[in-house]
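Hi X.,

You mentioned you wanted examples for the new student's onboarding notes, showing what a folding record looks like when two proteins sit in one file. Here is a clean example. The first protein comes first, with its sequence line followed by its structure tokens.
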Amino acid sequence: MAINYLYIDDDSTDRANGTVQGLKKEGRIEVFLSQPESTWEQQIQFIEDRQKEDKLDGLIIDLRLDDYANTKDGKKANYRGTSLAQEIRTRQKEKSIKEFPIILFSANDKITQSLENSGRNLFDVFIEKESITGPNIYIEEYIPKLIALAEGYRSINLSAENLSEVLSIDISVVDERFVSELNNLANNPSHVIANFLINELLLKQGLLIDERTLAARLGIDIEQSSEDWEQVLSSLNEALYKGVFYQGWERWWMPIIEIWWNKTIHAETYLRATSASDRVEYIKKELKLTKIYPSEKMPKSDSDEFWTVCKGNNRPLDPVDGLMIDRQENLYPWQDPDYVSVEAALHRTNINIWKNVAKLEEERLKELQAQYRRER
């Protein structure tokens, strides 16, 4: 049975229809396009009617719904996406509207300029309209995420009594501080729980890690090792995250990777304290692979005991060779900080992604800038 999303946007029908057709590829999602009603009361009623028809598993909305008049009555909406989302979340808490994901689909400048921090928690996912660069991004990224969100909300609703069940793993291997924080949310609305799982587990490296970080921690250069990389992943199938929202975010459990390193690879050293070349040799020997190759250090780096990925150039990095980036003061204990390499920091590579180094790193960055200016 297809998953049903309602998409509300005041953009031109032709342009919005392009998004609808992209999301409907493969027939796994049905998307109903609607221009915003003139008042939020009318819009809420429309949403409730869709719910009664059992045709609402999620909502996609633009941030600015009041830019253009709708074609039905020639009026502009007198509300924005944030106020509509706030009203829906309030009614979901009151149980007059069922819980479902809300996706913000808007232009990047609108998101950064108009959305206050307090409004960010209303939405499960942000999709920038500018990110739609071709049909493949729907199939590879956005369709899986929308499916994951709709099905994930159902799982959360069914596991209200024991939230740790949504992780689909033996809880004994999971950091008990994370499990405690999760179970403390048991009486909260589903969107609060979903927000915590997405933003504090899936989108942060630490307890779970993504493919790039996994490759860095195994010391493997993915591009050079494409022939045998899938064999490595197959060996790590037990570590693959299969919990709530897994379809939209491919992740691996770090505690199980550590177990795999000891019991499958039979390494004689701690993974964290092993060089990339030695990690690869251990893996090649135990998995009987020949075509995996170690990652190389970046310029201005000393260590190849890689543990993270540079936010500037997406290459493996040992945090000792990096600079912590800004706005990470309130990480949970199970989360790892993000870093930018010295090379990327000096050249301001992709600075739009990492913005600034942390305050405690500013003096060190100045010293590095002065040092490398003298050496030129």
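Then the second protein repeats the pattern, sequence line and then tokens:
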Amino acid sequence: MKRKQTLKVGVSGVRGIIGDSLTPGLICGFAASFGEYVGQGRVVVSRDTRPTGEMVEHAVIAGLISVGCQPLLTGVLPTPSAQILVDECKANGGIVISASHNTVEWNALKFIGPSGLFLNHTESAELLDVYNQPDTTYVKEQDYRSIKTIDGAFDYHKKRIFNRINVDAVRKAGFRVAVDCCNGAGSLFSRAFLQELGCEVISIYDEADGIFRRPPEPIPANIGKLCSTVVENNCAVGFAQDPDCDRISIVREDGIPAGEQFSIVLAAEHVLSKTPGNIVVNIQTTRAIEDVASKYGANVLYSKVGEVNVTGRMLEENAVIGGEGGSGGVIWPAVHPCRDSFTAMALILEMMALRGKSLSSIIEEIPAYFYANRKISCSAVNAQEAVRKLNTKYASLNPKSFDGIRIDFPDAWILVRPSNTEPVIRLTAEALHEKVANELIERFSSEISGMI
């Protein structure tokens, strides 16, 4: 049977709409293939709060047991907590059941290797090869292994964070904090986590039922209720999570959203003030990261978009902090090399406590940039051809061309990048002045339209 168009298989795992492309049989088959790939051992299985999560979990369990693996069930758990648990338990791997910031009808399997990192491009291709083999090696009945439930799985994650920040300073500050859990995994953990840091917590969208009462991506357009909650309750800061808690967006005490780009900027500002070293970010990240790096004598190294690309380069370069500006992803390898909203919240609170400054005053010390973007419909072939022509035309400006093309100007940059999920080419521009960002979008839209 031909798979429907909503099924997406790649380095981000297997993602689709339940009942359309992501079926119980397909889920079970991929889980069995992953079990074969990592070997007959223990595999962590976690999920977010989506209503389809339990069904997917049962299919995953069936697939894993059928090939001789022992599932370690956590129930609802943040994605970074699952990655850390794989590392702590020395498991063979893990499967996270979550479609992250996608809407509720979607779900996904995300595959974790034995080091607690998501499978990279090579490993994902190897897993797909296993899945596409004609025969699966099922074990005999005497080799079936029992399910094990892991209680207190989040505690491993929390302990790592608390061991690496100045908990006493944060507790002494006694911040009042608002948190928007998006009815996801954070609904079960974020309030208690912040309270243990001495915060008075006002939480919204904290029913753990997976019925997202706002669009799940934590961008400024979606977090208006958090902004008003911060102001109405005189909070020092507001935090917005996505359903599986790997992304974070921050709101100032005056109710103004800092924007998803500023999560990594603020984290880097704080980490570099304590720890010398370099930064790795994806190619979509704001130039404010370079302003922060320059202040501390650090280098900014760029990677392709995607967590596995950022973490891979971070490990190669021994970077002290990294992340993805466009998605609000903060990666602090001192805790674990993964996107982690809990680590980000702790770092921001520690920075505010140690500096004795409001969040807005800290942000206003960093140059502000204006952002603009656009999508142009075109085929993948035409998108790649446009990128090739732009590389030739702007070769004298030494563009970054490892993921689309990013062209840097003295006070601005533009990224032209073919989408991996839609028949479009994406344009993103940033500049010190809003007019310049918009002009770059218009200029390159016109150029690309003449190329495709």
